[in-house]
Write a structure and sequence with these properties.
With 219 residues, the chain is an alpha/beta fold. The chain is 38% helix and 14% strand.
Amino acid sequence: MKTKAFLFDLDGTLIDTMPWHFKTWQLVVAEMGSPLHGDALMNELYGNGAELMNRLIPGRIFTEEEAKAIVDAKEERYRQLYGKQITVLEGTREFLDAALLQKIPMGIGTASNQANIDFALDQLQLRSYFTGIVGADDVQLSKPHPETWLKLADALQTPPEHCIVFEDAPKGVEAAQKAGMKAVAITGHYAANDFGEYDNILKIVPSLNALQVRDFLYL
């Protein structure tokens, strides 16, 4: 059965932004009095909205409106402080070019908001590869809920079982598993054993540079 679509996370999978997001979150949570720092903070940087902020700032309960204002301000701060330093990860363009030659539909499913998505895709000239994009503004529930991947599969007009997700975070792989999709785990900021509980993983690699598109054409 030929694979019909490739679904990519954005930050940490295609582009090198995670160090800069982390630095910005460090500033924000410290200013808000959170005890989280280092690995404890990194492990909580998934999801979005009130659910995210309630984890980052223990002891407080945020409304969705309050959380969105904080997250949006954080993202603007990230773009201003570090936006010019983001780069494409090793192997990204080569892998996307090879998939394009095979006429495989590709899309992005990310917890980033639309401003960050537009900023990155336009600055790094990646937009032309993708026919579908689902971001934080497009879903009610973020990863590990499967909504992001299911909406993206729908946008690409591809059944979930014909999709392969490329993801650098365990919660994103979990979302793919819940969506009925196979996944490739990219070990950028997590170790291989962080993905050990998921049975939908085809490969665990350090970057897209370690992959060949032809290996995924018939699965």
